[in-house]
Structures are given as C-alpha cells and as structure tokens.
Amino acid sequence: MGTVTDVTDVTAPSLEVAGLAFAYPDGHQALFGVDFTLARGERVALLGPNGAGKTTLVLHLNGILTAGAGTVKVAGLPVGRQHMAEIRRRVGIVFQDPDDQLFMPTVREDVAFGPAAAGLKGAELEARVDRALERVGMAEFKARPPHHLSFGQRRRVAVATVLAMEPEILVLDEPSSNLDPASRRELADILRSLDVTVLMVTHDLPYALELCPRSLILSEGVIAADGRTGELLADDELMRAHRLELPFGFDPRSVTMGA
Amino acid sequence: MGAGHTHKLYRHGHSPVHALPPHTKLTAVFAFVVVVVSTPREAVWAFALYAALLGTVAYAARVPASFLLKRLLIEVPFVAFAVLMPFVAQGERVDVLGMSLSVNGLWGAWNVLAKGTLGVAASVLLAATTELRELLLGLQRLGLPPLLVQIASFMIRYGDVITDEMRRMRIARESRGFEARGVRHWGVLAKSAGALFIRSYERGERVHLAMISRGYAGSMPVIDEVTASRAQWSYALTLPCAALVVCLLGWAL
Amino acid sequence: MHVPDGFINAPVSAAAGVVAAGAVAVSLRGARRELDERTAPLAGLVAAFIFAVQMLNFPVAAGTSGHLLGGALAAILVGPYTGVLCVSVVLLMQGILFADGGLTALGVNITVMAVVTTVVAYAVFRGLVKVLPKKRPSITVSAFAAAVLSVPAAAAAFTLVYAVGGTTDVPIGQVLTAMVGVHVLIGIGEATITALTVGAVIAVRPDLVYGARGLTAPLKLRVNGELVDAPAAEPEPAPVAARSPRKLLLAGLATSLVLAGFVSFYASASPDGLEKVAADKGIDAKAEDHATADSPLADYGVEGVTNARLSGGLAGVIGVGVTVVAGTGVFWAVRKRRTNETSPASTSDIPENV
Known about the structure:
Chain C: It comes from Streptomyces phyllanthi. The complex is a heterotrimer. By secondary structure, chain A is an alpha/beta fold. Chain A is 36% helix and 23% strand. In chain A, a hairpin with a 2-residue loop joins strand 9 (214-219) and strand 10. In chain A, helix 5 (107-117) packs parallel to helix 7 (151-163) and helix 6 packs across helix 7 (151-163). Chain C is mainly alpha-helical. Chain C has a single domain, classed as Arp2/3 complex 21 kDa subunit ARPC3. Chains in contact: A-B, A-C, B-C. At the B-C interface, helix 2, helix 5, helix 6, helix 7 and helix 8 of B face helix 1, helix 2, strand 1, helix 4 and helix 7 of C.
C-alpha cells in the first residue's frame, strides 16, 4: 500500500466518475456516459428504475467490471489493474443479498476476511473485527454462523464486513430490501452514525430521502438528474419520466429532513 | 445437511474428547479404522476389544449409547448385503438349520459387519464431538489442499441455503396443485433441478464478486490456526495405539 | 449408501486412495485453469447443489422413489475437473459428517463414484456432442447416453476393485454381469433425470452448460451504437475442454490397466455384485433391485474355483473394456472429426482476449 498512498489526494473527492460507458459481452449496453462526483463524507442516493444500469455502475466502482470508455477515480486513485487491491480496500460494496456476502462459516471469520486478505493478523485483526461489529451492534454474534441470524442481522453483519476494511466509500446495493420496519430503522441509524462517504443504490425513495441529502437519478445509462433529494422527489414530471414512483400516501414535501 | 456451525451428528458438550484439537481426532479415528480393517477376521475377540475401546471413548465424550446406536442405522443396507454373503460365496459349505451356507461367506459377512460397524461407530463419535468448522480446520491442518477445504467450506455454508431453496420450490409446486406421483412427472422435477442448478451457479458467481470486492485473490487468508500440544496428541492417539496392540495380538495368536 | 470399512482389503483401499488423490490433484489443477480464482466459490456452490439434488426424490412407482447420483450431471454442467472435485468433496463430507461410507473406503468411493462416473460421462457426452448435429436435441441425447453409460461403468469399476481387493470370495463373472445389468437399469433412471435437467438448464442459460459451450453464438459488443467483436469484460473461464478429457481419460486408462493387471494375478475373490448393487446404488432404484435380486443370485451355485478365477480374469478385461474403450473410441472419433473441421465450434472459440 505504501506505493499507492502518494497517489491519494486528501483533497480529492471520494469518488469521481467521468464519461463511463459500458456494454456487456452479450451486446447489451448498460451505461452511456455517466458523470458524477461525490465529495468526502457525503451521503448520496443513486435512484433509478429496474434495468437503469445501477448494479452495472456499482460493479465499476471497484473494478469488477472495467469501463469500455471513461474513468472512475476513488480518492484520486484511478480504478485500474495496477491498484486493484487498494481500490477494493477503499470501495466497500454491500451487496443486495447478505447470503452472497457472508460466505464464511462464522460472523467473526467473515468480518475478518477483508482485513486478513489485506495482510492484517493477530490482535490487530481481532480489534478491527470487534470495532466493525460494534459499529453495527452485532458484537455478541461474533461466533455465530451467518445463516443462524435474521435477515436484518445478516445485512448489518454484511455492512460490518465492509466497514472492517475501513473504506473510503461505502456502496450499498438496495440496503433496505427485505427488511422489516424496525431493522430498516436500525440500519438507518447505523448508516447515519458512520463518517464515511456513502453511495446508496436504491429504489426505496422514502429511505433515500431519510438518509441522503443529495440524490442522483440514473436512467437509460446516464445521470438524468442530480440535486437535493427532497426537490427531486417533489418534481412529479421528472419522477414520471424515469419510472420512479413514491409509495402511496407519501409526500416528500411534508417531510422535514434531519440529515 | 448440517448447519454451518453444528450438524446433525454433532452433540454439544464439554467433554475432554470435545476439547481435543480436530486434527488429532481425525488422525486418531483414521488410524483406528485402518488398524481395525487390517485385523484378521478370525480374531473375533479383537473386535470385541475394539468395541470396548470405542465404548470407553463414547463414555469419555459423554455420548449416550442410544445416540450412537441410532446413528449406526446408516449401515443397514450393508447388513442386508452381509446376510446374503453366506448364500452366494464359494468354497466349503456347512449346514445350518437346513440351509447350505458357505463357510467363507459366513466369515465374509462377519468381516464386513464387524469392520463396517466399528468404522461407522468411530466416524459417528468423531462427528458427534467435533464442530463442522473445526473439522474443516483439522482437515486443512492435516494437509488437505486448501482449495479443497475452501470448496468443502462453501459447500457447507451454502448447503442449507440451497436445500432451503429446493424446499421453497417444492412448496411452490405443491401450492399450485402439483404432486409428483410417477415417472411422467419427472420432467417437472428435472426442471426444478435445472433451475436449482442455475440459482446455485449464479449465487456462486455473486459470492465470487463479494469475495473479490473484499480483496480475495485466489487464496483464503488464514484467520484461524489449530494447534495441538504433545499431551493432546498423546491423549488422542491412545485409541489407535491401544487398537494396534490388539491388532498385533490378533495376528500373533 | 457408500462402501463401508472392511469391504475392500487394506492394500487395495490404500491403492484406491492413491488413485483418488491423484485424480483429485489433477482435477484441482484443471479446475483452477478453467475457473482461476472463481474455483472455490463456484465448485463449492455446485457441490452444495449436488448434495441438495441428491435429496430430490423422483417417484418411480408404487411408493418407491429414486434420486440422482449426480456424477454425470456434474460432469456435463461444470466439466470433468470441477465435476470430479464437487462429487469428491460431497463424498468426503458425507464420510466425515454422516459416517456415510467408510474412512478407509474413501479412496474407493471417490475413485468409483467421482472419478469413473464423471470422466466416462464427460467423454461420452463430449464425443456425442461433437459427432451429432449442433442442435439442442443432440445435447439431450448426448446427456442421456453419457449418464446411462456412466452408471454401469462405475459398477464395472467397483467390481474390478472388488475383484482385486474384496474380502470375500464370490464368483466375479456373475457379479460383473449382475452389477452391470442392474446398473444399466439404474442408469436409465439416472439418464432420464440427467437429460431432462440438462435440457432445463440449456433452455434458460445455455452458457452454463460446460459441455455444450461450443453451441453458443459468438458475442458482440455495442460501443456507441456500433457492433464490434466482444472483448470479454468479465473473466471468461479459460476453455480447456478440448484437451481436458483426454488427459483424464489417459489417467483413467492407466489406472484401469494397473487394476486389470492385479485382476489377472489375483482374480480369486469377490462377492457382492448384486447386493452391493442393492446396498450401494440400490437405494436409488429399490424396485429394480428387488426385481433382479433373486434371479442372478440363483445361478450362484457351487462353481469350481478355477472356473471362478477364469471368469474373474475375463471380468477384469471386460470391465476395462467397458470403462475405457468406449470412451477412447468416442474420443478418437471426435478428434478425427475435429481435425477435419476448419473452424471447430469448440469452446476454444469463445473469445478470451481480455
């Protein structure tokens, strides 16, 4: 990591995406030139209908997919083959299905996986695991196997697995899906308490409004709108144009935002 | 499939046998079974001694006899086979209750039954006193290739997830009034199996993405290492050593 | 289910252990070459699938039901290397966790059920796919043939092992006949399910059927509205299908020859066959077992030992023949065909220019 730290620029934004285009090998083009920038410490929602290319975009952020055109920079470091390990440490992705994310036999080993892969050992590793689990309130489940946990608990552990790597930016893919209201609120509290940059990919609009002051709308492979979440959600025409619908009875204008 | 942490055969406990490091137990059980298999079948008393040895281990591990006996049922198909051996084997024959039985076959049946039962009992004791996770660590420690340990570990982690998916698919089929009754329904079941494969494979791909997202580059980071003291080794190896003595006596007498 | 301890004598069990270890080592390398660092999660999930699908009951008739053994299915879906690994891991876990199959018999179980089944199935499948017209029904037919042959091949392999290291004398010739006979019946069930399952997968995700990769169309990429040849953006598994089975087949041939050598020297032993059938694989088709269990056994009269030796030797030869010659023959045909084709639709065509 020593060689790459000089590339890191503390003043650089957490994430810079410029002109990103990508087509899958089957010919299906998902991204048509995506541009946006996230400042350090921001919490931003990425909204968009199904099939807008949200997941494809996420997979570019840590180099699992590599752009056909355009660039992605994480804290000034371009995503590319030569810095892949460092990029993957900096960009923590929480996938939609916690069962995919929690692949180790116990919670502890799962949270330790990332830091251990980065070379951490012994007491330092243990401390890192404890800290990450405490931040999501799952410390007492350390020795349990993941599939003995409830869905909400599993999602929190999934967040911990990523936090343990002390990422520059936390990317969450549909964090609120399949959560009951209490788990949803608990997760929101956890996310609010973190001081990392958060990019939350979702079509849960109230959740976006609750947590993210700023939102991006990804539609047909480009950023169609970028602004304050409350204003975007209140723009009926914009919402309709991009197949975004608020839940029945929900009026973003009536919500006073805490965040 | 057993769960990730515990499994069907595992019995939670804090006995000295539970506390032994997994690789010592694996070694002990394997050595014991090898010794048993190498014992001449004519030394009937030797097998009784082996059974007594296992009984002692079961007592030390606080595994109740009923538990052990119930698990031995897995052997039943082979009992059926063993029963047939005296009828089909060749060589000298003897009349028992009016049936002509092969002496060789009788010995063969005894051989398979005795050794098979002891083998199963030893494995059951191992499984009853060792957590799954530990078994995997033990196997890794004993030099099973890490890739194989990883595959086994993923199989165990996702065995339940996939069995559960299969169960949900069955419920979905039955909810729509389908019940497989015969060969003509195989197509539907096979479609489920096909769908299950696709789901499993795609999950494998997603798991892989999740892994590389956290810095996986082909080898699992070592998080836990099991170690055993000399005392633990000698405690574990008491079983096969005692068995070896019996075996040597069996050959000598 | 699986061979227990004490069934096969210690030296032969050890030898089978060595064979199994060798085959697993070759498969580990092969799988790594194909799947690189995706091996562990993918093979692990496929092993979990095999494990789960063995619990899926296929009703036969009158309350009996069978289930898939999965060796052929694994071979066709994920290729011979990964297939061997998956089935081996399933067997290993069954032995250690469920006491299903003896620890000393693990080598025998892996050699027979993981290696022979998978390799034979894959060789037959791949061979037929190459020879038959490139259409979906050919895949189904090939899958059926592969599975139907793989099961008796495993039975023959087991009989061979028993002929060499069985612990009781039973006439081996009849055993072989009975074993193979009964397993052909079981094989038909296995083959039907396998073919249907492969058909179901290929209808939805043809790209996931390893053995049929040659049938997918070449990929294109649209960059700013223009179609260009696809550079594989995601790591494509390196295609080694064309070479892989041959290597495994050679290994299998060598093993079989070694075993056959033993047979000619020792061909004295062996019982089981049938009941082994009933006991081991027989769970899968109780109906068939019981139907056939009596008739061949009735012939097991008091035959002369010399006669048994002779038939034992013959059995060895026949066994090797069944297992290997079929596979090699098919392969020879395939290779001949391949060399004639300028653009073989093999997996090696899939662009790999990352």
